[in-house]
Design goal:
Strand order of the largest sheet: 3-2-1-4-5-6-10
CATH superfamily of the largest domain: NAD(P)-binding Rossmann-like Domain
Distance between the termini: 37 Å
Oligomer: single chain
Number of helices: 12
Radius of gyration: 18 Å
Number of domains: 2
Largest sheet: 7 strands, parallel
CATH architecture of the largest domain: 3-Layer(aba) Sandwich
Number of strands: 12
Length: 280
């Protein structure tokens, strides 16, 4: 038995699909969406340790992640509480092996914005007695798809990342494939970075999107942090969550978060493999 948290989310649903043929419990907040996944549903809250304990009980391996809620007034506090609840459940259920969705930079305890919550996730799991593999992907390529409404509204790609900062960008399907492999084989522990096929700048991402949209001159605009926070709050983020985003991009811009590319952490799917599906 394998339990998958976030089973209807961007990564989790692909983990479930990659585990085809395995006995899987799918954890999520929506009974309707879980029913569409086609495996055993477990409906509840990721901050409820008692619920998670039952969802994890009897599992040979568990895929954990921190659900993102940008509306939380105290986003960092909410992430800490969920990380603690997940670890409590792993310990109480006697889970032997965990694959945790984390991020590049999760080894740093502070100064990384959103990623601080993933540091807490890894830290709490380390005290459970389970064998833990922490997947640390780079920037998700699918973040570019999320930018399409901004492109339509403003005629540009915009964020608080420096335009010429080359980041490792990885497809979520490659992250899911790595998670599924580990859940089935339990072959290793410790942190595992996933960096995509090559590093990309935001200017390059805008160029790829522009070509697909038949707008070859589509620009990338680097917003100052205060303007980025205001834009995110206008889009529904809490002020704390918006500040966590710019805290993360500041850590990336400064080079505080970085990775060394190797054959082992290079994954196959590039932005050109995905962009056609985003603009179809």
């Amino acid at each position: 038995m394998i339990t998958v948290m976030g089973a209807t989310g961007r990564v989790g649903r692909q983990v479930v699909a990659a585990l085809d043929g395995e006995e899987v419990r799918a954890v999520g907040r929506s009974a309707e969406r879980l029913a569409a996944v086609g495996v055993v549903p477990c409906v509840g809250d990721a901050g409820d340790a008692a619920f998670l304990t039952e969802a994890f009980r009897g599992a040979d391996a568990v895929f954990t992640m921190l659900p993102v809620d940008e509306h939380e007034p105290d986003h960092r506090g909410a992430q800490e509480a969920k990380a603690a609840a997940i670890a409590t459940a792993v310990r109480a259920a006697g889970v032997p092996y965990v694959v945790a969705l984390s991020s590049l930079g999760a080894e740093l305890p502070t100064g990384t914005g959103f990623i601080e919550g993933l540091h807490a996730h890894e830290r709490h799991l380390a005290g459970t007695g389970a064998r833990v593999l922490a997947l640390r992907p780079g920037w998700f390529l699918e973040n570019a798809a999320d930018a399409l409404p901004v492109v339509e509204a403003l005629g540009c790609v915009a964020d608080s990342l420096d335009p010429d900062l080359a980041l490792p960008m990885v497809a979520t399907r490659d992250v899911a494939a790595a998670a599924a492999r580990a859940l089935c084989t339990r072959y290793r522990t410790g942190p595992v970075e996933l960096l995509g096929p090559r590093d990309l700048t935001q200017t390059e991402v805008a160029r790829v999107l522009g070509t697909a949209l038949h707008r070859p001159d589509l620009p990338y605009v680097r917003l100052p942090d205060d303007e980025m926070v205001a834009a995110l709050v206008g889009a529904g983020f809490s002020p704390d969550a918006a500040a966590r985003h710019t805290g993360m991009t500041a850590a990336l811009n400064s080079g505080r978060i970085s990775a060394v590319r190797t054959a082992e952490n290079t994954t196959p799917t590039g932005i050109e493999d995905l962009v056609g599906g985003w603009v179809a």
